[in-house]
Fold:
Amino acid sequence: MRLLITCVSPNRPHPSGRLASKQAQEGVDVHTLFENSRSIVSLLNDARRLLTIFRGTTYDEAQINVNGSMAQALAVVICRWYGLKTTLWIMDSYPGCLRYVTRFWLFLYPFFFVGTVVAKFFAHRVLIIDEAFATHAPTWQGFRRKCVYTPLPQQAIPKDVELTAQVPTIGILGNIEASWLANDFQNFYIQARANGYRLLVATSHSVDTSYLSAEGITSVIPWPKAETERVFSQCSAILVPLSEARLIYSSPSKIIDCYLRGIQPMVMVDKQVWEANRDRAIYRKCVHVSEFFNHRQQHSSQALKAYAQAWLATQCEIAPCEERRDGAVTCRIATERDLSSVTVIHMEAFPGFFLTTLGASFVRTMYKAFWLNPKGIFVVSDASGGVDGFAVGAMPSDRKDRHLAMQLLPQFAWAVIPALMRHPLSVFRRVVSQFFEKGGAPSLPDGAAMLRSIGVAPALRGGGVASQLLDAFERRAFELGAKSVFLTTDVLDNERAIQFYRKHGYEIAHEFKQDKRRAMFLMLKELR
Structure:
């Protein structure tokens, strides 16, 4: 018999609630625990309830979908204590979000860090729910190898659901925190009313309704699952009341719910925090309240629905940590341990190329620079049990990234010495041309990520590894905010590579001369 421990009731209009409802229909024993575990007392009470459940029923395996590092750790340890095969769904449970929740976060951080390590270490399998995982979750290889990206089920939207509001209405839907209601709601209410909007407040949680008694406010509290579409249909725009922690560390389901229905979502957080996170894939069609009220910035209903489908397809096809398909190829984000294998593959795959002539030490330092770069995109495949291919590049860079090159300059200089001794003139001429001569490469569109190189072990060429790597690279770039991907490749004696990129949607945008001699194509692909 299977068990699902969830912090979201099957009756709530939330992806986790839909997961619980679906599991219950399939015969899984569903228990709602750790729903409001914000104190030691409530955590221990829920742990005691879980122990009581185990004393009365025998299970074969357990799935855990609860929020918070400590709650996850308790649930996983108890399930493992009873010998169950345990699967953990990761929600926004990263210890780093504590700094946005309490002034005592530095004191609490070690406990929550230990909790998240225990939960992920003892779980047999980890299912990643949101695309913030790659940035904030632990990076050690042993943990990430047990991770599979599995977005929560999204509700199918009936085709006949249309906007029914007679007066322009902004919905405030979802988890409304008491601090936001006390500190920020009044300001938002004044702005909305001044711009001719009514407010519709709907939440499954209990809130202080005294704030909602003013003119022009309708409330649906509690918000039953059966009322989901009726509530959405009355909103011409929706404020998702996110805290800074949730904005940074999670992928709020209400944003996607808005996209799916063609309703403009907005957020009300510190503007600097918003600017730092607005390029994440989930927020790309979302707007800040200041943009909505001051500039009347909105996206069309058709554009929002189209983006929702593209976003969901992207999330389902690639994990930020690891990509698993029906075939043998597995793509994942590179770790530092992979650099040696990547270097060997480069040396074997690109014999005679200039970088290869500089030696393995130089090549490894170059790939280390990409791996260390915060804007780097570095994925590898390990179809044969070890690294057998890689794709590397970077998001658009700026002057702030130059300090990394300066830090690695001594390593680059030391690594190039052997090649300089073997071929002093050719190496010196190429290095000078790279750093001092103005190249002929044309300007690029804003938001274009660079694909620097794809390499596959010679024994696996023709087996689809390069295609999987290219796909993984593009989706990682899209997740990080890229609007397109560009690459450069030789014009002459390079038909196979050109056709490969064309097959995957790349078009020749420009032809130019590199080092004033070498004919190159710049190829570009728009990401959708």
In short: The first strand starts at residue 2 and ends at 6.
